[in-house]
Amino acid sequence: MSCIQCGYEIPHVFGTCPNCGRPAETVPGRPGNRHNAGSIDRQPLRLDANLWTENDRITGIASAILLISLFLPWFGITLLGTSVTEDGLTSHGYLSIVMIICLAILGYLVLRISPMRPVLPPARIHERLLLAATAVNVVLVVAGFIATPGGAEWAPLLSRQFGSFVGGIAALAAVVPLVKSVFNIHIRLYGH
Q: pTM for the complete prediction?
């Protein structure tokens, strides 16, 4: 259907013109219109989760868990009967990169099942994009798990908390199926 204000071709899933914002109305005699004059073509936006592959689901769930783990306690210290913990983002500022990557992965996966999705990359490029993002997360999470905040003098006093373990497991769970999938694609394409 064409916008009656600017002439932009409006996809059937929109209730307003994405170009000028005018409500989608039809005009008799205009090409692309499917209804009577004055009617508004609004259909609910539906996400089709069937478009996700098994690897997409695993990576999405693991990335969501990793994102949540960044706000859980990663390190703790007990002095004079008082316990203090720090979450992953407070203990290591560079883990905010992991948070951004997790949000980007989740947004990308939602975009893949959206009716408004742009032209998407083929499966082998899609898998490699996810692999690259999750591999960066693994490296940063492992570094955050190994490095103790406050330097070497605080290391004997600090204990790792459950957030660091959850984050490490989730980061590995997100990357492992993708490594296997990309390796299998490489074998099928190149035979070695």
A: 0.69
